[in-house]
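Quick start: what a row looks like.
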Amino acid sequence: MKILLKKDVRKVGKAGDVVEVSDGYGANFIIPQGLGVLYTKEAVKVREKELLAIAQEKAKRTAEAQAIAKKLEDIVFRFEAPVGNRGAMIGTISIKELKKALREKLNVSVDKEDFPEHNIVNAFGMSHVKVELYKGVYGIMNVLVEPKASAKK
């Protein structure tokens, strides 16, 4: 039985492959589990349409991420941090705070893993933090940390 795989099947093939499997395996496992369909010309056309839709969606998301990366160049994210005895910054600006700032200013949601260099912002002044906005599309966050005005009198 010829099967057009929709998903990767271990020891059988990858999504999009046309494979030959036993009738029982194809009819009782692969097709009912939604891992593949019977190979026909119509099935190939449907699969090509699905792949085209996936490619268009990827192109759209990539373009959106590039536009956001361009906007990021012009934005400065400002934070305040306490000053230590020697004039150094106490603590760090965490990835959690950077994620929150991105969500508030640009309505962009990212994960901790989207900060590939795991930069820790732990000094006053301007820092540049790399963030992955979509697969292979990176933006640079300009982070300015200023000393917090002390409450002492």
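That is the whole record. The chain has a mean pLDDT of 89. The radius of gyration is 25 Å.
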